[in-house]
Specification:
- By secondary structure, the chain is mostly beta strands.
- It has 2 domains: about 325 residues, 6 Propeller (Neuraminidase), CATH 2.120.10.30; about 280 residues, Neuraminidase.
- The chain has 2 helices and 49 strands.
- A 5-stranded mixed sheet has the order 48-1-27-26-49, with no helix packed on it. Strands 3-2-25-24 form a 4-stranded antiparallel sheet, with no helix packed on it.
- Strand 17 and strand 18 form a beta hairpin.
- It is globular and about 80 Å long.
- About 50% of the residues are buried.
Length: about 700
């Protein structure tokens, strides 16, 4: 056989490459989802000076440390180091922090040069983790960074290793050598660690940790324990405090932490480690530092300074979280941030090594020429090749069959917008949720009108509206007994939905045009909740979430059933008490995306703004229940994912009108002020009110 001529070989290679590229493009897919409140965070890190007369603080003394790009939070001041390349003269301020500018949380280093305390001149900005394909560069949460005193190692939380156990947290503490990129896991396998803190010498690291008992589904007080271990290799790990979080060292034998006490006040506690006895919960002295009467949490210390700590507080009568100093000698609070921005939330303080500045993060407000805008579709870094992910600014986003429009809800109201952000229209003023597009009639969408998270008898009905024909509305259900989550069949003839008309929430199928007047059939039956249904593109399956394995528990798992009621099977098992919700089929019908607490929890919830479920992540799974993939990594509540019928390139799409800004709330459970009037008389003196 003769060897083919080179031109023929070249043509063959090009043909094969073109075919491969076409096949790859045909499998490229996109998912959109929503994250509670995240579109409004616009966090930047700020700093205020600490001096003897805090009541003289003015807004122009507040220094913005980060650059207004994306979301920046959880900073940590560090002294001058030799490992990071800097100019010969030492900058006055250096910090490491978390930023989401590359589509997932990662760690940056900033060195800030200024001529005066109010005028930044130069910024040196360096991403600290290696860009090479390694464990540390995988898509994951990076959180709570700090640098060892010798400047050699970066300590942080990451979620890049799957423990392989449902509802087990992926959060673990790692150490990366800044020059070589060599990384070590310091958290034992089978354990989850949060909020690492280096001791002043760098010898010890303290963490808030779940031991073997794991996570029980808490969304407020995690009831973690505090462990300490050697920073160099994670050995000599010892539990020193039961029930505590967010540790902060003041010296190598003293650390502070927060927890919710028996009186329900969040307070700061001090743990004093023995100098000549083995470490244990019995040998460590624990004492309460801040009194009841206000919530105090996320303490910050400065090495060797035993005079004061910085804390975040929530005081009775205030809807905002603020940063205050607590004098450990006088037992007095000194307010700081309320004096310069009283109606902003301030989170997670940190102190400079010389105790002269306090840092924190807050929303920067409306964007200016130097800050990033809001996005309608924000590209989120994807761990799966050929799959793009987008955070959407509204709730229950779904694509039209052509993929050119998105319907969504914003309480109250239903909206339609072009995929490029143009032609935004409000098509209904009603309180609505769970939208869906008809797959045959291009302008028809379905939604549920009524109260969310309501009982079986609550007034909720499914309507259709034609957004191309004057938004004409047709009521499809008649009994008003919590009818919701409509999903049309691919031929446009039927709608599957959930209803509480029997006294239990089960699935029904009705005529898509005439509603239940033209035909209604019960699909599931039982004393449990079947809900959040989605019809497959080929018409063969209906996916839904159900608590039928433990009715009334609040735990949901995913199931599949055929439209004729046959073939019922469990698809995703959430684990004990777990939740898997909002299934949605891929365009080829081979996978489902859904939201779940399958990956446990990734950060202490009190360190974030309010999230009803601070553990929701987006996943996908094959229809045989195999190959569960975690798609998002953050400490927020992600939900209501939907596949796009067409691939969307990984580009941000700016929100046309922008705003509102800083529109998020503090943790709702901090609104609980137990018996605050009774303790008002003993309220600690405030040096600046």
């Amino acid at each position: 056989m003769k060897t083919p001529h080179l031109p023929f070989m070249l043509v063959l290679v090009l043909v094969l490459a073109s075919r491969c590229a076409a096949e790859e493009a045909s499998t490229a897919e996109s998912i959109i989802f929503t994250t509670l409140g995240r579109a409004f965070y616009a966090f930047d890190i700020y700093s205020l000076p600490i001096h003897d007369h805090p009541q003289t603080l003015t807004p122009n003394q507040e220094l913005q440390l980060t650059d207004g790009h994306s979301v920046n939070f959880n900073g940590h001041f560090i002294p001058n180091t030799s490992s990071i390349q800097l100019p010969t003269h030492s900058p006055p301020l250096q910090l490491v922090y978390i930023t989401e500018r590359n589509g997932s949380p990662t760690i940056y280093y900033d060195a800030l040069y200024t001529c005066t305390t109010t005028n930044l001149d130069t910024r040196i900005q360096v991403p600290l983790l290696p860009n090479s394909p390694s464990a540390t560069s995988k898509v994951s949460i990076k959180d709570k960074p700090s640098v060892t005193p010798d400047g050699q190692y970066l300590l942080y939380v990451s979620t890049h290793e799957d423990p392989g156990v449902p509802r087990a947290s992926w959060a673990a503490v790692y150490s990366t050598h800044l020059q070589s990129g060599l990384t070590h896991r310091l958290t034992p396998y089978g354990v989850a660690d949060f909020s690492p803190a280096l001791s002043p010498s760098g010898l010890w690291t303290a963490v808030a940790s779940y031991g073997p008992h794991g996570w029980a589904g808490e969304v407020e007080d995690l009831t973690t324990d505090i462990y300490v271990f050697l920073t160099r290799d994670g050995t000599h790990r010892v539990k020193i405090v039961e029930h505590g979080g967010w540790p902060a060292w003041v010296d190598d034998r003293t650390l502070y932490f927060h927890r919710r006490g028996h009186d329900q006040w969040w307070s700061i506690y001090r743990a004093i480690l023995p100098s000549n006895a083995p470490l244990s919960t019995d040998s460590v002295l624990v004492e309460r530092v801040t009194p009841p009467g206000l919530h105090a949490f996320t303490p910050a210390t400065s090495p060797g300074n035993k005079n004061f700590i910085a804390v975040a507080t929530r005081r009775a009568g205030s809807a905002f979280r603020h940063i205050e100093l607590f004098d450990l000698v006088k037992k007095e609070f000194t307010e700081l941030t309320r004096l310069v921005s009283p109606r902003s939330h301030h989170l997670n303080p940190f102190l400079s090594p010389d105790s002269t500045r306090v840092g924190y993060h807050k929303c920067r407000g409306e964007p200016n020429a130097h800050s990033s805008p809001q996005f309608l579709l924000e590209n989120v870094r994807s761990p799966v090749p050929n799959l793009t992910l987008f955070r959407f600014v509204g709730s229950f986003p779904v694509f039209s069959p052509a993929g050119d429009r998105i319907a969504y809800v914003e309480m109250p109201g239903v909206y339609v917008v072009n995929r490029d952000g143009s032609n935004l229209r409000k098509v209904s003023n009603a309180m609505a949720f769970s939208t869906a597009w008809d797959r045959v009639r291009a302008g028809v969408i379905y939604t549920a009108i009524g109260e969310t998270f309501a009982s079986e008898s609550s007034q909720v009905d499914i309507v259709s509206m034609d957004v191309d024909e004057g938004n004409s509305v047709k009521r499809l259900t008649l009994d008003g007994k919590n009818n919701a989550f409509p999903s049309p069949s691919p031929d446009g003839k039927w709608i599957v939905f959930r209803s509480g008309r029997s006294g239990h929430k089960n699935l029904y199928i009705m005529d898509a045009v005439g509603g239940e007047r033209k035909g209604l059939r019960r699909l599931t039956e039982g004393p449990w909740t079947d809900t959040m249904c989605n019809w497959s593109p080929d018409g063969e399956w209906i996916a839904f979430a159900s608590d039928r394995h433990d009715p009334g528990s609040g735990s949901f798992e995913l199931y599949l059933i055929r439209p004729d009621g046959s073939g019922l099977r469990k698809l995703v098992e959430s684990g004990s008490g777990g939740r898997a919700n909002h299934p949605y089929f891929s365009p080829d019908g081979k996978r489902l995306t859904f939201t779940s607490d399958y990956a446990g929890i990734s950060a202490e919830p009190i360190s974030n703004p309010h999230h009803y479920q601070p553990y929701g992540e987006i996943f996908s799974v094959r229809l045989d229940g195999s190959d569960i993939k975690r798609l998002t990594h953050n400490s927020y509540e992600d939900g209501t994912p939907a596949w796009s019928p067409k691939y969307i390139p990984p580009l941000n799409i700016e929100k046309a009108k922008g705003g509102p800004y800083c529109s998020f709330e503090d943790c709702h459970w901090l609104n609980n002020m137990p018996n605050w009037r009774a303790v008002a008389a003993s309220r600690p003196h405030c040096a600046a009110l």
